[in-house]
């Protein structure tokens, strides 16, 4: 019985690749140094999988930046502005595309399906000439072979590559990306021939776009592509790998009739309906790569459950055609549990990171072959049982309270315009009120204070004094700038989710549980393992202190339940909605405590609401329904005079604007500065909008200082479609990553622009 891993994290157990990349980019180490770190990481990963007994070990899943960018390099599809003149693509061109250089900005980056990984979007126009310009796939295959490890080279499938691309500037509306298919396939043929010549016997094409809602034209592209490749693929075993959701029934038909394909990989963790499709018929003689070990989470597999799923599948596809696999690449989980020194043994027994998942896959394969490792299985069963019954997981009061929420609506009693009137009487704000999103620059000094307090090196008293001093500086600065609604600057927070997670019950934190977000950047999501509750107020102390320093309204600053959920590793033993409702109740208590403490404006950030949107259209309405409901629960208990703000990142709101309105916040600030037009078009199309709205007037992701006229111009454009009494003026997002030398002049210009227009109105 065989085992397979779809892909593996590249960053290394202690982020070795990150540090090697950043040191190379800073000119502190050579290209050779970087290559050496990368080769060592690859070797140790291959060896680890081989030692674990994995039969189909992937290669070419390593990347210096991103696997989609690697495919772009393989195809020689370098946008002309990077000045590449041919030959094998080296670090210079590669990293210029990824990160930009002194003269040319980077290529666009976007989210990889519904994960928190970001890929570099290929930009293709009718003029693009594809040439085989990076031999990385075959080089990695040979490298592994030289180490004695036979691997399955992994390529992004040609159709997914095109479907994930965007048309080059100037041809956005007219160009069909799929028309490039024949040209792209010509290079794929060369790559395949190369791999074959090097001795590869298997090849894996990742075609994750197959889980999306595809029309007949797109499905036809898959049929055409693999028919075209079939002659070159003959003699090879060909695996088409899909992941992240169920396969639509129509797609399943197309997929399982592709030419030249010998194996299909499915995500059976998220794809429970896919299992039914397989049971309804699977092409005889083909391999099924059954992704039963979750690549998106950190929980130990329920081995007994998986084994019974596998037994059922074995009856359909045959013993020798079933391969145990992961649900997707392990890129999206943490690397190795052995480096977790701070988690206690009980919680550790519930978890499996990438290295442990490899062992699980192998154990399942052995069990199917009749060599069940009884000790391993019973330890796993014991851990599953302890997770189910542990008092640390279950809090009955919380369960009851969350269950009681279902079916009810939770809306503030008064409508938003009446509320805004009541709030204005109390707040007395000028027209076009100015505010910021929450954080102010986090200086090295500030980070040091937090670190030393955590490590017990400074007393609580010293810590509180330093943080209060910082808040005072931020408050004074905002008064000096004449901003209308102030923030305390979030100096006590390292991260907007971690800060709350650390104070809520039901959360655990890792020391090395990093997951790649993009390039060398990683995130360390908290683990939500149990019912969530709030033992005591979390932000009231700091917000009250800040409010006492000024007569102007001070915004209370909270992270919303959906964002806390989307940026954590979440429980898989209850629906995501249930966990979110529990968090919502905890945040609700915090909102009410802030109100009692005299905070009249409270911002509840839902930065990540949009990014949790399910991939398949059929599931989106349900998600938006409970996500928006959870948000409303947090503030349903406040008085009309308390103004609730929310903030969202990312600018693609057009498709969810009605859900945003349904959140029923009094004011929403949104990231917008890179796409004014998109947002404006929503309102031009006549969407009725009555709440306060602050579309970001400048981009905080760049050090650039926006001139007053430019900001004024933006505000005027907004005024053309929105009522003047609902418009707010604010930056795009928090200022945490900027320097004071950038923030001061930028905010000065922002306030000046608001005043300029107020005078004209
Ligand atoms: N209040 C947070 C901040 O300003 C919001 C950050 C975010 O939207 N990502 O930092
Ligand atoms: Zn934001």
What descriptive keywords fit this protein?
alpha/beta; 27 helices; single chain; 21 strands; binds glutamine; 5-stranded parallel β-sheet; 761 residues
Question: Brief description of this entry?
Answer:
With 761 residues, this protein is α/β, with parallel strands linked by helices. Helices cover 43% and strands 12% of the residues. The longest helix is centred in the first third of the chain and has 22 residues, at 31-52.
Topology diagram in text:
Blueprint: E1 2-3, H1 16-25, H2 31-52, E2 57-59, H3 67-74, H4 91-99, E3 109-111, E4 118-120, E5 123-124, H5 136-146, E6 151-156, H6 158-163, E7 166-167, H7 181-197, E8 202-206, H8 216-233, E9 237-241, H9 249-256, E10 263-267, H10 272-280, E11 287-293, H11 303-317, E12 322-326, H12 345-349, H13 354-368, H14 374-389, H15 396-405, H16 416-427, H17 444-454, H18 460-481, H19 498-501, E13 505-508, E14 515-518, E15 521-523, E16 527-533, H20 540-547, E17 555-559, H21 561-566, H22 576-596, E18 601-605, H23 617-635, E19 643-648, H24 657-662, E20 667-670, H25 676-684, E21 692-695, H26 708-719, H27 740-760
Parallel strand pairs: 1-12, 2-6, 5-7, 6-8, 8-9, 9-10, 10-11, 11-12, 17-18, 18-19, 19-20, 20-21
Antiparallel strand pairs: 3-4, 13-16, 14-15
The protein binds glutamine and zinc ion (ZN).
The site of glutamine has 13 residues, from loops.
Pfam family, one: Meth_synt_1
Catalytic activity: 5-methyltetrahydropteroyltri-L-glutamate + L-homocysteine = tetrahydropteroyltri-L-glutamate + L-methionine
Enzyme class: transferase
């Amino acid at each position: 019985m065989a085992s397979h891993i779809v892909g593996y994290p590249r960053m290394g157990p202690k982020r070795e690749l990150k540090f090697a990349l950043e040191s190379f980019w800073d000119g502190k180490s050579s290209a050779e140094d970087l290559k050496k770190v990368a080769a060592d990481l690859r070797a140790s990963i291959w060896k680890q999988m081989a030692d674990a007994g994995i039969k189909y070990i992937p290669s070419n899943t390593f990347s210096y930046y991103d696997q989609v960018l690697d495919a772009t390099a393989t195809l020689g599809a370098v946008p002309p502005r990077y000045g590449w003149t041919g030959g094998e693509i080296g670090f210079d061109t590669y990293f210029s595309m990824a990160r930009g250089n002194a003269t040319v900005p980077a290529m666009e980056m976007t989210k990889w399906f519904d994960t928190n990984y970001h890929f570099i979007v290929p930009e293709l126009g009718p003029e693009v000439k594809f040439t085989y310009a990076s031999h990385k796939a075959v080089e990695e295959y040979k490298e592994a072979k030289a180490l004695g490890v036979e691997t399955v080279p992994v390529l992004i499938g040609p159709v997914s590559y095109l479907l994930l691309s965007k048309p080059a500037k100037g041809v956005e509306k007219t160009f069909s990306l799929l028309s490039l298919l024949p040209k792209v396939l010509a290079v794929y043929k060369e790559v395949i021939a190369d791999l074959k010549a090097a001795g590869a016997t298997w090849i894996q094409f990742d075609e994750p776009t197959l889980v999306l809602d595809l029309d007949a034209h797109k499905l036809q592209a898959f049929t055409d592509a693999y028919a075209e490749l079939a002659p070159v693929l003959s003699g090879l075993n060909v695996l088409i790998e899909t992941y992240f959701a169920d396969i639509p029934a129509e797609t399943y038909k197309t997929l399982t009739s592709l030419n030249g394909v010998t194996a299909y990989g499915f995500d059976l963790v998220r794809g429970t309906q896919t299992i039914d499709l397989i049971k309804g018929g699977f092409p005889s003689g083909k391999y099924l790569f059954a992704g039963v070990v979750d690549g998106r989470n950190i929980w130990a597999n329920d081995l007994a459950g998986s084994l019974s799923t596998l037994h059922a599948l074995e009856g359909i596809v045959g013993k020798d055609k079933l391969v145990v696999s992961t649900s997707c690449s392990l890129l999206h989980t943490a690397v190795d549990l052995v480096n977790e020194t701070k988690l206690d043994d009980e919680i550790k027994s519930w978890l499996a990171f990438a290295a442990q998942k490899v062992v699980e896959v192998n154990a399942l394969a052995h069990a199917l072959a009749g060599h069940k490792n009884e000790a391993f299985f019973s330890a796993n069963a014991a851990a599953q049982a302890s997770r189910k019954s542990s008092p640390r997981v279950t809090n009955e009061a919380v369960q009851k309270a969350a269950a009681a929420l279902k079916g009810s609506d939770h809306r503030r009693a008064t409508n938003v315009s009446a509320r805004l009137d009541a709030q204005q009487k109390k707040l007395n704000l000028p027209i076009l009120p100015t505010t910021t999103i929450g954080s102010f620059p986090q200086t090295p000094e500030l980070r040091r204070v937090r670190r030393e307090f955590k490590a017990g090196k400074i007393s609580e008293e010293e810590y509180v004094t330093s943080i209060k001093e910082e808040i005072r500086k931020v408050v004074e600065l905002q008064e000096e700038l004449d901003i209308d609604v102030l923030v305390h600057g979030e100096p006590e927070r390292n991260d907007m989710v971690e800060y709350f997670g650390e104070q809520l019950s039901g959360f655990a934190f890792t020391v090395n549980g990093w997951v790649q977000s993009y390039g060398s950047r990683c995130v360390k999501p908290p683990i939500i393992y149990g019912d969530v509750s709030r033992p005591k107020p979390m932000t009231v102390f700091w917000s009250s202190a800040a409010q006492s320093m000024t007569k102007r309204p001070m915004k209370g600053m909270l992270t919303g339940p959906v964002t806390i959920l989307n940026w954590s590793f979440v429980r898989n033993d209850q629906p995501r909605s249930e966990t979110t409702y529990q968090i919502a109740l905890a945040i609700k208590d915090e909102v009410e405590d802030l109100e009692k403490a005299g905070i009249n404006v409270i911002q509840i950030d839902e930065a990540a609401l949009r990014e949790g949107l399910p991939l398949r259209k059929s599931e989106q309405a349900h998600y938006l329904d409970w996500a928006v409901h959870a948000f409303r629960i947090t503030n349903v208990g406040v008085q009309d005079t308390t103004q609730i703000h929310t903030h969202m990142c990312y600018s693609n709101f057009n498709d969810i604007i009605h859900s945003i309105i349904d959140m029923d916040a009094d004011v929403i600030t949104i990231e917008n500065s890179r796409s004014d037009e998109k947002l404006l078009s929503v309102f031009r199309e006549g969407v009725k909008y009555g709440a306060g709205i602050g579309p970001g007037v400048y981009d905080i992701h760049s050090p650039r200082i926006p001139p007053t006229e430019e900001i004024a111009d933006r505000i005027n454009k907004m005024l053309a479609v929105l009522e003047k009494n609902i418009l707010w003026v604010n930056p795009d997002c928090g200022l945490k990553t900027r320097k004071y030398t950038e923030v001061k002049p930028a905010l000065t210009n922002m306030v000046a622009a608001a005043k300029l227009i107020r005078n004209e109105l």
